[in-house]
Structure formats: structure tokens, C-alpha cells
Amino acid sequence: MCQLLGMNCNTPTDIVFSFTGFATRGGLTDEHKDGWGIAFFEGRGARLFVDHLPAVSSPVAELIKRYPIKSENVIAHIRKATQGEVNLENCHPFVRECWGQYWVFAHNGDLKEFNPVLNGQFLPVGSTDSERAFCYLLQSMRAEFGDQPPATGQVAHFLQEKCREIAAHGTFNMMLSNGEALFTHCSTKLHYVVRQHPFPVANLSDQELRVDFAEVTTPRDKVAVIVTEPLTNNECWTQFGSGEFKVFVKGDVLMPEQWQ
Description:
six-stranded antiparallel β-sheet, 15 strands
């Protein structure tokens, strides 16, 4: 199946180090070679890069490794196709507008007999179960909250229940963000680490590369990295439980009692 990578932080930060290791899994150290994509929130804008080529050999991926785009919320995906052809329209992340905000979504898993009725507000462009699930989530949120954008806590409570509903059809590891929060759901595998002062020297697992984050951060910086499989071999990664839903805001992991 596919792999996911997300970043949520309290100050604009680049994801070059993490993406470099992650992209290696797109055809070199792992088999996820059916396309890839990454989305960066910058203010109210969203910068999206997708390619149907393997991440390990994509010239666009090489650009991302060398171009330190700074963002507070990032979602990336490397694909091993289970539903839908290997083409550009089936590459994650997917982006839609809702309530005057961009929403970005990526999914790892395989949903069986998942055919929700879509009313036309949000429709898939490609042929994946993932994009169908994204459209269904946005349609459901609009039906629940109407024309007024809900607070982060309201979205969290609603998405938690909807993710359980969708996960009944199969594996549903997902990331969703509107640029203010990063919402995550785990069916099988997700891990996260929060980097903060005192910052470590981190070693990538997939290639020989290390970074001393103390040299490129300030003491107030806080960066949460969420990924299918840990990217480094010398940090303490926390594994999600099966069925667990987590919300990340400004680099913090919000507990359910903090969802307001």
C-alpha cells in the first residue's frame, strides 16, 4: 500500500530532510513507485506538486529536495496503486475548496464496496477510492455545518466519527488539513515525533544523511512529523493505535479534551 508523510509546526519550516528520506521509499528502499505528491500551505494558498513517475526518479521530487519551501502544514504521499490507474489524476494529495479554504487530503489503504452517494458539490476527477472518500468527507462536513466554517474542535469530533464509518470498508490511514490543523486517522500504521528544544541530531533510516536541528531552529520552534514508518533511526517515534484519531496544531498533539 501507499505511505503518508505530514508535518505540522508552529513556525514555517521546510521539510527537505524528511522528504529526502521519504522519497527514497518511492522506488528504491521500498516499492511505492506508482506516483507521488506533496502539498504545502503558505498563508491562505496551497502549493501542490504531483507526478505519476516514481519519487526516487522524478525530476519534480528532486526540485522539492533542493527547494526549502517553508510551511506550517505539509502533506505528502507515495503511491502503490490498489485502485485506479497510474496517472496524474490519481496521484495524492487531492485539493478542494470548502468554506473559502483549501483542504488537502491523502490516504493510505484500500476501501472495499465504498460507493457513497455524492450530490455534486465535490466529485472525484480520478478513479481512486481515496479521492472518493475525500469528496464524501467534505460533502458530509458541509451537510453538517452548513455555510459557516466550523471550529477546529467541531471538525475533529465530526471527522473522528466519519473516519470510523469509512474505515469499516477497509484500511483508512489518512491525513487532512485546511492549513490550520492536521487531522489524522490510523487504521494500521502511523507514527509521529515532536521535535522541540533541545533539538536532536537526526539520522535518516533510508540513506546516509543527518541534520543537527539545533543549528537550523530557535528554542521556541516545535515541529510534529507524522509518517507511515519512522524516517529516522535515532529518535523516539510514537506509534498510533489502530482506530486512533489525532489532531495536530502548531506542533502540538491535541487530546480530545482540548478539541474546542
